[in-house]
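Major facilitator superfamily (MFS) profile domain-containing protein, pasting as requested.
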Amino acid sequence: MTKHHQHLGLSFRHGAEEERWVDDSSVDHRGRPPLRAATGSWKAAMFIILIEFSERLSYFGIATSLMIYLTKVLHQDMKVAAENSNYWMSVTTLMPLLGGFLADSYLGRFRTVLYSTVVYLLGLVLLAVAQLTPGLRPAGGSVPRIHETLFFVGIYLVSVGTGGHKPALESFGGDQFDDGHTGERLQKMSYFNWWNCALCSGVLLGVTVVVYVQERVGWGAATVLLAAVMGCSLVVYLAGWRTYRYRVPQGSPLTPMLRVVVAAVRKRRLRLPTDVGELHEEDGGKKRLLCHTDQLRCLDKAAIVEHDGEGRRGAWRLATLTQVEETKLVVSMVPIWVATLPFGITTAQVSTFFVKQGSVMDRRMGAHFVLPPASIFALAAVAMIATVALYDKVLEPCLRRVTGTERGLSVLRRIGVGMALAVVAMAVAAVVERRRLHSTATMSVFWLVPQFALMGVADGFALVGLQEYFYDQVPDSMRSLGIGLYLSVIGAGSFLSSLVIAAADHVSSHGGRRDGWFGKDLSRSRLDLFYWLLAAISAVNLGFYVLVAARYSYKQTVKAKRVSASDVECATAVAA
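Structure tokens follow.
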């Protein structure tokens, strides 16, 4: 046998071993390298997607009816109820930053989901107790103080549970696919699309079936139903433990980035070498190494090797090139995060003012059925499901053939399309509300279909794009935190929505001396002007987003395992 044939035989066996075992730093339930055929991929992801469906069913069963509950059961004014609803959504979508950090650093994603589901269930139990126990539930026009206390403690426990559940579960699902395997990498792109289909299916049932139970049977009965669903989802989650691929937490992912900054500051007076290959790098083993980029060159000084003593090579004095590039990735995300906040403001209106609009419109469907106000949200969910399915099965394959790239449409362009559609949705909402205010007869709720549908399509582009962006572009060690960053866009947007409402009310009412844009009810409010304000803010911000996105450099990984930074072959992880 010739040496050439021997070499081919070794290469074949090596390729067969790579196909059999997963070599991406994940482990199976016994702590061993995972067997590809027995773990991960869709066989594990389906368990996780089913749990997301049930969690979203529970969350939106509460969230979309919250405005109605606060105004009709707790008898709060519309402005106060909107502020309380926005504050709760802000906390709910900002808590994943803490949950994602704990999952990546200490608990691991599997255990974080497990513990947060228990907290979530505790919140639902408290809500059920407040709504079902005689003496605690509201009677007539009076609301017992203990009911209000238990209610708010319950919904904020749901916030805490969501804070661990959302970032850890979605990133745990992404971990089931090996980026180094071509087939699984393509499956991961579809995973985020079908994740959102399951999410929207849960939303759809949450705002129809659950809301119907709330309206016709009672709030307490609906909460018991949600608690039962969450309990079942916990059983489903645990049933798949043998098929999961796990990531062992390696401590705080923020510490290496802090070391890069400290090292760069210490060596700020040194001159960068002309040859990038002279910068320090180490064999990452199973860890993916990153290619050098020309942005934020000042941080490259952290990887300059000093040759005047071993004390110059400590962790706080010398960083690897990959650690420098990971720090650049996180810093480069800040402008993108800021530029997407106005989109978060527009999404906050769907479950607050959009639903409130529907509550005062003609919701009759036939002679005997009246559509619950919160069920109108289903229009946005249906539009998002249709958009994601069409994108995954029709649009993306076509774009791949046209552009010749693996993704078809870059993730930042996908987000931009969604943001542009949100501007149109706000303008349409303003026109419809203006017509409603000047109509002598009660308008049909189906006048709201265009604005709900446009926001659903916008979410199908922007929200899915944001999930992929913050999962893929963060360092591998902080992917749960990356999902937390994505959710914080929605949370910060809800918080900013409350601030915009307060500021617009103060200015339009001249400090409270006359009626402003937000009266005690919609007939004395000017939501149309508020929607036009949001459309203007979003349109101006879209221009800022285009400028920021055009300058962004995507994460690039090293194909070869061993480095000398001058001769590596780089592969763009996300096609531009």
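Note for the archive: The first helix runs from residue 3 to 20.
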